[in-house]
Amino acid sequence: MPASPRLLIADDEPALADSLLAELTALWPEATLLPAVYDGQSVLDVIDDTAAGQGPDVVFLDIRMPGLSGIDVARELSKREVRPLVVFVTAYDQFALDAFEQAAVDYVLKPVQTERLAETVKRLKARLGTRADSTTAADPAQTLAELVERLAGLQSAAQTRVAPQGGYLRFIKALVGQEVRFIPVEEVLYLEATDKYVNVVASSGESLIRMSLRELLTQLDPEHFWQVHRGTVVNVAHVASAVHLSLGRLGLKMRGRTETLPVARQYAHLFRQM
Q1: 184 neighbors 171 (Cβ within 8 angstroms)
Q2: Which of 73, 75, 173, 216 has the most CB within a 10 Å radius?
Q3: Which residues contact 81 (CB under 8 A, 6 or more apart)?
Q4: Domains of the chain by start residue, with CATH
Q5: Which residues make Cβ contacts (< 8 Å) with residue 154, sequence separation at least 6?
Q6: pLDDT tens string 217-257
């Protein structure tokens, strides 16, 4: 492993790039953090413009970036003889994570959790220490290429489930009596799974829709709708406060509501870092 591995972060949100840089500086003090870039093409430019042997050893790629996406960049890197290790930084929910787990490269789920990032650093150190041993590891180009194609397939599948305007759902349709109600997603406070239905709790009232929470979640912007429990998804714009419950658990108070929504332990970090 290089004495001071060079790390490059690519994320179109400078604040998130800076946050990740700070986390990596603390977790991997011996590493050299290159200046962050904010689009996919800049990643390739940095690699192409750097002297041989001086390019990044690891690239942290946001999947959704203007121009070349993280997937596009990874696809290009997989064709090269000399390439950095790739870590995807993603807001994809659980339906995509199995694909990441199958690959030798890693992923970091937004918002970044320190403990999870520490695991990534540990894996990267191991990979950097053994990547020259081609007899004990799978071909990294093949591994990366296969992952890229799986991600591209997942991205394509997700696009077939969202609203036709080229983005996420803008309205949730609910049948109330003989009336079809269109609920703007920005008015949704939280979603709660109820048997084969989802209870949509909005500022205008509550409605049941016949759809699984998992299916609905894939159609909502993950930057705004966060899963906090097996059967609960909240719109973070309407979270009023986080409160401590018994046994060290966390609960959420929503604006204009009196109930407290419990947060499962695996999601508690989302709100402790806010």
Answers
A1: yes
A2: 73
A3: none
A4: 6-159 (3.40.50.2300), 171-272 (2.40.50.1020)
A5: 92, 95, 96, 99
A6: 888 988 899 999 989 999 999 999 988 888 778 899 999 99
Token readout for 127 is: 């990979």
User: Whole-angstrom Cα distance, residue 126 to residue 123?
Assistant: 5
Residue type, 235: N
Tens-place pLDDT, residues 81-117: 888 999 988 765 443 554 454 443 677 877 788 888 9
For the packed helices 70-78 and 40-49, what is the interaxial angle rounded to 10 degrees? 30
- Dihedral Cα 159, 160, 164, 167, nearest 10 deg: -20
Short-list 205, 185, 262, CA closest to 228: 262
What's the pLDDT tens digit per position in 14-36? 888 988 999 999 999 999 999 99
136 CB contacts (<8 Å, ≥6 apart)? 130
Spatial distance between the Cα atoms of 82 and 52, rounded to a whole number of angstroms: 9
pTM for the model stands at: 0.54
Q: Tokens 């695996």 correspond to what residue?
A: 266
